[in-house]
């Protein structure tokens, strides 16, 4: 258990580990159902350390800034950040209409919900038209499925820290717009192929 001093809630205590990514671990918070806290890992691999040092010094703060600047048309797809500091980020845990917690796309396997894929398509089109290069959003761990009813499912992105060439400094073609466009399209195709119950 870790104790962290937050601005909004004062001292909070971490609970169960909910998930882990390359840079951050995510924990529930004692007595605060529906919220979680992401903490930057202290043990990172060398590659991740370099990446964090050069490109993600302030991952949580960058993500928070991005949330506040995301265009209104697509903002509902992004999970709100409540508070961010260098070492932690407070955020919500998306819930389904029945009160249960939403799950990552990955744990759904193939998704055969038309409304969900329409939303994903809207999101992809918006990214492309507005040159928002959030490649990592089209990923089974970073996108959750929130069920607003039995039939209305929608994507909720819980990790959107990476933008543009910063994410992949070793792929030189991403310095160019055509390269980023190509990468976004490839990611989208791969994502559909992996998780859509309709496209195969
Ligand atoms: N808001 C949330 N609600 C529920 N689970 C979450 C939430 N945020 C993160 N998680 C869980 O914690 C994991 C790690 O969080 P996150 O993806 O933000 O970490 P990261 O290290 O930045 O990721 P990456 O490996 O993509 O760089 C997620 O894959 C997810 O399982
Ligand atoms: Mg992630």
Brief write-up:
The protein is 30% helix and 24% strand. With 200 residues, it is of the alpha+beta class. It has a 6-stranded antiparallel β-sheet, with helices on one face. A 3-stranded antiparallel β-sheet has the order 7-8-9.
Helix and strand topology:
Layout: E1 3-6, E2 10-20, E3 24-29, E4 35-40, H1 46-55, H2 59-69, E5 81-84, E6 88-92, E7 103-104, H3 105-108, H4 114-129, E8 143-147, E9 153-157, H5 177-195
Magnesium ion is lined by residues 21, 141-142, 159.
What proportion of the residues is helical, as a percent range? Answer: 25-40%
Order of H and E elements: EEEEHHEEEHHEEH
What's the helix count? 5
Mean pLDDT: 89
Ligand list: adenosine-5'-triphosphate, magnesium ion
How many distinct folded domains? 2
Work out the number of β strands. Answer: 9
Question: Whole-number radius of gyration?
Answer: 17 Å
Shape: globular
Strand line-up across the major sheet:
1-2-3-4-6-5
Low confidence ranges: none
How much strand content do the residues show?
A: 15-25%
Largest sheet: 6 strands, antiparallel
Termini separation comes to 44 Å
Q: Structural class from helices and strands?
A: alpha+beta
Give an account of the 3D structure.
The termini are far apart. The chain has a six-stranded antiparallel β-sheet, with helices on one face. Helices cover about 30% and strands about 25% of the residues. It contains five helices and nine strands. It is α+β, with helices and mostly antiparallel strands and about 200 residues long. The chain folds into two domains: about 90 residues, Phosphorylase Kinase, domain 1 (2-Layer Sandwich); about 110 residues. The structure holds adenosine-5'-triphosphate and magnesium ion. Adenosine-5'-triphosphate binds next to strand 2, strand 3, strand 4 and strand 6.
């Amino acid at each position: 258990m870790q104790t962290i001093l937050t601005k909004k809630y004062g001292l909070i205590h971490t609970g169960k580990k909910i998930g882990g990514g390359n840079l951050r671990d995510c924990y529930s918070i004692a007595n605060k159902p529906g919220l979680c806290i992401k903490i930057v890992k202290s043990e990172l691999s060398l590659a991740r350390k370099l990446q964090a040092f050069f490109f993600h010094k302030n991952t949580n703060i960058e993500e928070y800034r991005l949330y506040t600047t995301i265009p209104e048309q697509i903002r509902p797809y992004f999970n709100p950040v409540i508070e961010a500091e260098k070492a932690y980020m407070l955020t919500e845990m998306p819930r389904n209409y029945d009160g249960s917690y939403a799950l990552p796309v990955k744990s759904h396997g193939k998704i055969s919900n038309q409304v969900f894929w329409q939303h994903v398509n809207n999101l992809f089109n918006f990214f492309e038209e507005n040159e928002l290069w959030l490649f990592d959003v089209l990923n089974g761990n970073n996108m959750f499925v929130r069920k607003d009813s039995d039939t209305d499912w929608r994507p909720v992105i819980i990790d959107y820290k990476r933008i543009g060439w910063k994410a992949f400094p070793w792929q030189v073609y991403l310095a160019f717009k055509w390269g980023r466009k190509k990468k976004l399209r490839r990611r989208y195709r791969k994502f559909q192929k992996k998780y859509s119950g309709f496209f195969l």
